[in-house]
Design goal:
Helices cover 46% and strands 8% of the residues. With 50 residues, it is mainly α. Bound molecules: zinc ion.
């Protein structure tokens, strides 16, 4: 029973981690490049716009 709870908590943390990784990725509106991380497009160096 305790093991099941620990596994659920661990999976929940993993999901949050993947979700935050996904949210940090963005698509450059100028060149369409998928930037995985950072606030600047690694292709055309355009700053991320919100
Ligand atoms: Zn770009």
């Amino acid at each position: 029973m305790l093991l099941c709870i620990l596994v659920l908590i661990f999976q929940g943390k993993n999901n949050n981690y993947e979700q935050s990784m996904y949210l940090s990725a963005w698509k450059c509106k100028y060149c369409g490049f998928d930037v995985q991380m950072g606030d600047f497009c690694t292709y055309c160096y355009t700053k991320k716009e919100k």
